[in-house]
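S1.2 Input.
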Amino acid sequence: MLLHLANDLRYAARRLAASPGFTVATVATIAIGVGVNTGIFSVLNGLALRDLPVPDSGELVGIAQTIEGVERTAYGSSSMFSTAEYRTYRDSSTTLAGLVGFSTSVRATLGGEVPQRIGGALVTCNYFEVLREPLLLGPGFRADDCEAAGNATPTVVLGHGLWTTVFGADRAIVGRKVLLNRQSFTVVGVAEEGMRGFDLEAASYFAPIAAQPLLQTGFELYGNDEASWLTLLGRRAPGTTLGQVRAELGVIAARIDQQQASRETTLIVESGRPVARPEARPLFVAATTVVMAAFGMVLLVACANVANLLLARATARSSEIAVRMSLGASRGRIVQQLLAESALIAALGGALGSVLAVWSFQGLVTFVLSAFGPETPQLTLDLTPDARVLAYAFVLTLVTGVLFGLLPALRASSRELNTVMKGASASGHRSEGRLRGALVATQVAVCMMLVIGASLLLRGLYATQTVEPGFRYENVTVVAVSLDGGEYDGVRAAEFRRQLVERVAGLPGVEAIAQALRSPLSEGTVQMMAGLPGQEQLFPMDLNYVSADYFSLLELPLALGRAFSAADETDTPAAAIVTEATARRLWPDRNSIGERLVVETGANVRSEVEIVGITRDAEVRVIGETPSRYLYLPAPSSLRRELLVKGGDFAALAPQIRAAVGELDPAVVMRVAPLEANLDFWRRLAGVISTLATGLGVVALVLAVVGVYGVVAYAVGRRTREIGIRVALGAATRDVVALVLEQTMRPVIVGVAIGVAGGLAVSRVLSSVLFGVSPTDVIALLGAALVVVGAALAAGILPARRASRVDANVVLHYE
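S1.3 Output.
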């Protein structure tokens, strides 16, 4: 069999070389299909599947937990661990050679001539040793750096990027002091260039976990035994297995549970991977399924396209195949020879596609990140191909070759010898036509689904460009200052904000100032648990703390009741305002003014607030969506708040605001931006998603059009004699074109109908990124149908018109 295979491959290579047009068309089609799928897999692999970028990463184990029966404070994820739990597992385990804990995306203010916000990680002091990542400079952390008692002078390890860009790669940096949140930190090391932490955002610094209260002011995690905030990563001891580690840590967890009667812990111990949190897996699996399915559709279109071309090629070789079989070749031998040609096409296309994927998707990720502006943080995403990506490309190429090659091979080897030797029968033509039509319908249906998705997303993009969110954003400036650390306790911070309001209010052109915890349409959400009096179970509500002038400044009208007053701004809220949608949901049959709402203002601390106003519905959280549970509370003086400044041209006002902040404290990090920039974020997001979806739809459409053209051209070639006779008998050009298109468009229309049904089902998945556009938007559906049908019609007209111009004398004389 191997000898036959080698001969078949050589024969296939000669045949492909003799048909360069066919070879280029099929190889390019498969390259596109395999390339886009390999590329997206390389992105998914870089996000969640590849090994962690440390030496001997196969020895690492990720540890997570789920706890029932006790109340926990979660910062980041409920599956994380407290400081005390980390120490217990670290000190009690013998199957682990080392255990580290860390908390990522800890943002702090780096002092200097130009203060800036940077992201870093809080780590245990054995972090670099256990991960076998030696420092470029410095001795690193000491054990007592992670103990609160020994942390009188906190220490820090600088990331390589921060050391290079801010400190000029100064090798004498070790031992010097840097300011983080106005606190003095001693530099004890510089990380190697490749060590950037284990979060998607690269860490610019590494600080001991004992520095948490200094870098995350306002709440205590380090000393809270019931706070989930540390991710655990261990290294297996030599000779131990993952099962042994899992069993031992389970025993330790049971001992911890015995200290609290109602506590029940379930540990999750698996190989170390970037996405290790149990809460993130369902979201990741769902997103992966949607993305891979969309890109897989392009591969399906490509396979149907090549299968049709191979089917036509095999039909043209029917006499040759019949002679081979009459001389004793078995059907299996014929199938093997035809599959060898398919395998060679797939191998060439897969190799070319893999190269294109590595080259193009690096640029694609760069494009996506650049679309969100210069403030986008540096990411740790590694898209270089590893063994997993290469294996995926190989398997995908193998499956693709079988997928598009097997059906034509089986069809070509199943013919009746006598019939073929005498000439193909009409029934054979009809069966081949039905098979080709089914492949065309498949291509068109899949293409239709992708084009519908792209059309809906483009409609969503248009909606973000023309949206009226329900509040005024023109000539409104957002001012956010960072007062983390140092002398800015609650009183000093409140005084700073009071002075800043006075200074900004006196600037030329300023009409009004309001304050809020979050400006409308800013990234992320804040929620509070709330419920109706008498209900034991509370539910989450979107929350914003605002000042009395907030609604008038944004021209966000009140439907009923009143706005907040200065008397409402206390540390214990007594008044609340809800949206119309919230009022309809909670009090559907009565006026909600004067109703009471229970809110959870702290851990197990509940109080009642009175509804004093109802605002008109507006898109304040996400473009295209009116929140159904949204609560406004008066902003207390101790709360961190953003300033909303109305009036004046932003270009002229922004430098004056920055100067006012600098006069109060030049070391403060500030962000001054127009409120419309919040809207621009959603526009950029919609633009990126719609661009990618449109690109995918265009690729599928091009492949489908090429497939339709190939089928029509082949069918016309088979019917040249018939068309010549019709022309000789007086058939006009339009009659011949109509005859060809009538048969061509049948499978196209069937495919469009199937594609519309599938597109309606798939569009539900896209509802979260349609930004106010219905998943059944008629304009999008009709537009997609017109594009696909029009493209297919155009692909069929060219060969049909060429057929109508045949010279009947030449055709009949030849016959």
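S1.4 Remarks. The chain is about 50% helix and 15% strand.
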